[in-house]
């Protein structure tokens, strides 16, 4: 029962992230319906044969190698970036009204702040 609740919660979080960045409703519906049917098989190749497990239902996460993984990761970062920009923290870019509050690279995040208060606000957002 607890596993089912966690699965539903994870699905709802992903769907909320997709909705927050204004993704087409057809894509949201597709993700919701397809996630309920996700499964995998384990294969073991020996010299004599290839053994394969029965389908294993995926109940909790999106695998790192899943096709949706990079898309959802990027969508999450877009939402996070928007929230950090709204906080109005970071360093002023000379000659502009723009501020730099964070740097993203691959799966890393570096927060930038003028002072400790800026950094604390950014940490709360993250």
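Q: What amino acid sequence fits the structure above?
A:
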């Amino acid at each position: 029962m607890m596993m089912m609740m966690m699965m539903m919660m994870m699905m709802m979080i992903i769907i909320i992230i997709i909705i927050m960045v204004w993704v087409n409703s057809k894509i949201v519906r597709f993700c919701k319906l397809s996630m309920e049917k996700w499964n995998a098989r384990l294969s073991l190749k020996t010299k004599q044969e290839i053994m394969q497990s029965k389908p294993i239902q995926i109940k909790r996460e999106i695998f790192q190698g899943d096709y949706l993984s990079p898309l959802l990761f990027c969508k999450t970062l877009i939402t996070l970036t928007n929230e950090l920009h709204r906080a109005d923290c970071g360093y002023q870019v000379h000659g502009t009204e723009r501020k730099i509050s964070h740097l993203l690279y691959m799966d890393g995040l570096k927060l930038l702040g003028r002072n400790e208060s800026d950094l604390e606000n950014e940490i709360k957002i993250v």
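Q: And what stands out in the fold?
A: Helices lie at 2-20, 25-35, 68-86, 116-125.
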